[in-house]
Amino acid sequence: MLQPTSGSGTASDPRLAICPDRHCYRRRPVRNLADSSDIDVNEVLPTDLATLDPVLRAHRFSLVRGLERYVDDVGPSYTRQAYERAARDPATMVLAARSDQRVLAATTISPAAWESGLLGTRVGHLGDVVGVAEPGRREPAVRRLLEAAGARWAEAGGGMLVARIDVDDADAVVAAQRAGFEVLETTIAYLNDNDAEPGTTHAPRGFEVRCHPHGSAGEIPATALDVLMRSVDETDRIGHLYSDRALDPDRVQDLYRAWVTNTFRGDHGDVVYTAWRDDQVLGVLSWTEDGDLDELAGIKVLRSGFGAVAPEGHGALGDLYAAVCRDRPLGSRLVESTTQAGNEAVFTVWGRFASMRPASANYVLHGWF
Questions:
Q1: How does pLDDT run across 135-185, given as a tens digit for each residue?
Q2: 1 by DSSP, 3-state: which?
Q3: Boundaries of every domain in the chain
Q4: Is 259 exposed, middle or buried (0-12, 13-18, 19+ CB in 10 A)?
Q5: Whole-structure pTM value
Q6: Are strands 334-340 and 160-166 parallel, antiparallel or unpaired?
Q7: Using CA atoms, how far apart are residues 117 and 123, in angstroms rounded to an integer?
Q8: Integer angstrom CA distances of residue 17 from 14, 22, 182
Q9: pLDDT by residue (tens digit) across 197-216?
Q10: Superfamily in which the 31-179 domain is placed by CATH
Q11: What's domain 189-359's architecture?
Q12: Could you tell me if 57 and 66 are in contact, meaning their C-beta atoms sit under 8 angstroms apart?
């Protein structure tokens, strides 16, 4: 395992470069691993979006593909709609890799102003990375696409790009790593089906659980959040931002705290559940609505938001999920929850509820350009 090295110089592995200002490694693209000399990457104009339809329709690794257990083909439709929004947004770029005018791969690049301001570096997000399915063609096409995405990002000022790729999309993951991205986190999503049998082995721990829809969590007195906010400041966190050695950890902590604050204000959560004891909030879970997804799926789906439990709230997580699995919040059919792959405590809680099932898993990658 490579360890950080101080000072400047070149790592023995040609894929890696030392970042002396943060004393960390940054990946360099790997060249000449497969032939991509016939592949050109260009920006896609809104009038040309239809040229992407063959790869969009065939996309098997949508970021909402876990829903396809319940709704057929919702993933490709959701991805297509995301590309339509991106094409209309003047701040977002749609890129396609082509050979002989045939589209082989595509993605979008969206600047993230909120994260950029808090992290003190330019941050952007890649949308769904789509590509042809042919063996030997998908990986070099996606690699060439992501190399070009990094080059465009560098030309516009540089900084960090964040990508999320399904763990089953091996070609895209390998292509991203060879294009200069690094896997920093694996996230697992479960879905609670409110129409399923509500069996549970959870033993209530006596917390008072309250539901706060549509910004009403902002009415919670600040003093009631003292214990939770202190735990946010003092507890070591895991996640892709904390794992990136090129980021200032103090700024990452500032972002995390702002996320918590905004969740209670309703900015980052359409429904918030809190667990109380002795007039203090000791646990919180939040979810966001996605009207576009609801329309495509024909059912209401809540997307995963923020979650935290203070050490003083041991056992609160189970009481929170018991309420969510019982309540059908905001009239939802499906409620998504995500966590890091190594979070055994959360998986133990989820396993107590028969209506909660594994849905999908994604790698979170960072690339610096």
A1: 889 999 999 999 999 999 999 999 999 999 999 999 999 999 999 999 999
A2: coil
A3: 31-179, 189-359
A4: buried
A5: 0.88
A6: unpaired
A7: 9
A8: 7, 12, 12
A9: 889 999 999 999 999 999 99
A10: Gcn5-related N-acetyltransferase (GNAT) (3.40.630.30)
A11: 3-Layer(aba) Sandwich (3.40)
A12: no
